[in-house]
Design a protein that fits this description.
Length: 101
């Protein structure tokens, strides 16, 4: 597999993981949510959408879904700067979400 194909494969995997975080639906995340719930940790209900979230709110979910799409669109020709930019954007979103706790 050449570098461009590997880059594409990795970016698609990253986009999937970002989407999983946004949806709080990955099996690993579901397992954590279930353990927290059983331990008595309450969930967060978003004021705007009234949706239940464990870790993020609806604004962060939208930001993560948008970022996941952006990563998926980067493609095999993505430069190191392109990848670094989406990495920094992801870091900002996550740090902001965690800071709210």
């Amino acid at each position: 597999m050449d570098d461009a194909a590997q880059r594409q494969t990795h970016l698609e995997a990253a986009a999937t993981e970002i989407t999983n975080i946004a949806n709080e639906e990955d099996k690993r995340i579901q397992a954590v949510r279930q353990r927290l719930k059983k331990a008595g940790d309450t969930h967060n209900t978003d004021d705007v959408t009234k949706e239940d979230f464990m870790f993020i709110d609806s604004k962060e979910k939208k930001q993560l879904l948008d970022l996941g799409q952006k990563v998926a669109r980067l493609g095999a020709s993505a430069s190191a700067d392109d990848i670094r930019a989406v990495h920094n954007e992801l870091t900002q979103i996550v740090e902001k979400a965690i800071a709210g706790e």
